[in-house]
Amino acid sequence: MRYIIIGAGAVGGVVGGRLAGSGHEVVLVARGAHRAALRERGLRLLVPDGEFTHRLPVVEGPAELGDLRADDVLVLAVKTQDSEAALRTWGPAPVAGGGTAAERLPVVCAQNGVESQRLALRTFRRVYGVCVWLPCTLVEPGVVSAASAPLSGILHLGRHPHGTDETARLIAADLERSHFEAPVVPDVARWQYAKLLANLVNAVEAVSGPVSAPEAEDLVARTRAEGAAVLDAAGIAYVSAEEERAARGDKITFEPLDGVPRGGSSWQSLNRGTGTIEADYLNGEIALLGRLHGVPTPLNDLLQRLANTCAREHRAPGSMPVGELVRLAGEEVDHSRGA
Predict the structure, then answer these.
(1) What single-letter DSSP state applies at residue 286?
(2) Which residues are registered as beta bridge partners of 43?
(3) What are the start-end ranges of the E strands in 66-173?
(4) DSSP for 120-145?
(5) Structure pTM?
(6) d(Cα 268, Cα 203) in Å, to the nearest integer?
(7) Integer Cα distance of 310 and 119 in angstroms
(8) N or C: fewer beta carbons within 10 Å in the chain?
(9) Which residue from 321, 88, 332, 101 is spatially nearest to 215, judged by alpha carbons?
(10) Could you tell me the end-to-end alpha-carbon distance of the chain, in angstroms, rounded to an integer?
(11) What's the pLDDT tens digit per position in 154-194?
């Protein structure tokens, strides 16, 4: 199979680089300075066991490849706010022998949140979800890092909305030869919703920096509790913290890499000044479900709003003192109670 990595940033770059390193055929899809660096110097992958450079085909869109191949796998790794544009671009792409990518090829959504696979299912017949446990960073154009060992990540994989098949097992086998664990599960959404709860911290980190102060830790705990209450009210199953810990074990241990800043995906978006952030599909997913099921979500509402403001105004990550964030959170909760 040939893997077309649509969005060769942090997650996509690491997955593509690791697949290439184990001998698999990979095409990277990128734009701007990152695309230029990939074409000029190759993909530099920084990991605890060394630095690797992979010279891979790099394209901006499907037209540069001609007809896609029947054995192509599309790996969607853009941020969720960019998913619709990517799906519109790649869905109609012709496949050798007839038909389009949306009709014939699998699309694997390796992203945070749960929205992209729903968007993909509107046009693609074969959609797969991935629960991405992969600490990684887009260090600079052309350079990505994955600072964990002995595995680069754990990628639970399954059909969307549920089930497994031979394609999922073949993809998982390739990933497991490439420094990942890739359990094929019939209920991948259950793992993704647990990851969604974990990702609610991303906005706190982006707005106010590393979560280390007790008041920040308390805010994160209350934000996640709010999210869990919403999922419970909606009847949405999610993996327990105990099951997550058992699955992860000591397979992903963070090992700092020299010169590589550590920050989550939302922190990285602000740090790069992209102008957008994925909060609408993390805290915003909880806010949406809360409105649908009559559960107040003041903390997630606030974090969604603040993260979007920071992105839109190109603020640096961590620009709001944690004390100010906690004060605003208290006001938001009081307001939701009618105080």
Answers:
(1) H
(2) 54
(3) 72-76, 106-109, 126-133, 136-140, 143-146, 148-150, 153-159
(4) HHTT-SEEEEEEEE--EEEEETTEEE
(5) 0.95
(6) 11
(7) 26
(8) C
(9) 321
(10) 59
(11) 999 999 999 999 999 999 999 999 999 999 999 999 999 99
